[in-house]
Write a structure and sequence with these properties.
With 75 residues, this protein is mostly helical. It has three helices and no strands.
């Protein structure tokens, strides 16, 4: 058995899991329940704003989301 220590206070309701997959699913479901309170950091917002500005300035270097999805259907 391996013991893992996490300094951040997680306040987990469940602390025993049979498999790593079960633990991962628990964390994913827990995150979904808390997603309403989540917001991007200012640093992440700046990255998105910079990427949108670059795409707007260079539209010929990018494809639309629809073009991207359609490219999977062709293969």
């Amino acid at each position: 058995m391996t013991t893992i220590h996490i300094d951040e206070e997680l306040n987990l309701e469940k602390t025993h899991f049979k498999t790593m997959e079960e633990f991962q699913l628990y964390l994913i479901m827990r995150e979904k329940d808390q997603s309403e309170d989540y917001s991007l950091s200012e640093a992440h917002k700046k990255i998105i704003d910079d990427r949108v500005a670059e795409a707007d300035a260079n539209p010929d270097n990018y494809i639309t989301f629809q073009e991207f999805k359609d490219s999977f259907k062709k293969k």
